[in-house]
Design a protein that fits this description.
This protein is mostly helical. Helices cover 78% and strands 0% of the residues. The termini are far apart.
Length: 109
């Protein structure tokens, strides 16, 4: 098999696996009402946990990949977190976060 055929085979198989995973969830979606309340609460937290897992490394590491707890992005993220919990406004959180990143980057480099 040529290299290009291998690439396309992997792409097609990845698409089939992704479609099957999503399709299998749709098949069991009707049964979710029968889950205990504690399990339903855990399932509701999965999107937030996934987002945190994607955002935290970007915020807490500098360009070299080193941990930067007092770097501009970490400080801006902490400020955005405070705004999010205090005001419960997504738009305000985004605007404060963007302004904080720009400000802290200008101040701290």
């Amino acid at each position: 098999m040529s290299e290009m055929a291998t690439v396309w085979t992997v792409i097609v198989l990845a698409g089939v696996v992704t479609y099957a995973a999503r399709g299998s969830f749709m098949l069991i979606a009707g049964r979710l009402e029968a889950l205990p309340e504690s399990m339903r609460q855990v399932l509701r937290m999965i999107p937030a946990a996934a987002l945190a897992a994607l955002v935290a490394p970007v915020i807490l590491r500098d360009e070299a990949g080193e941990l930067a707890l007092l770097g501009p992005r970490a400080l801006a993220g902490a400020l955005a977190l405070v705004v999010a919990f205090r005001f419960r406004s997504i738009l305000l959180t985004i605007l404060v976060g963007l302004a904080a990143v720009a400000g802290f980057t200008a101040l701290l480099g």
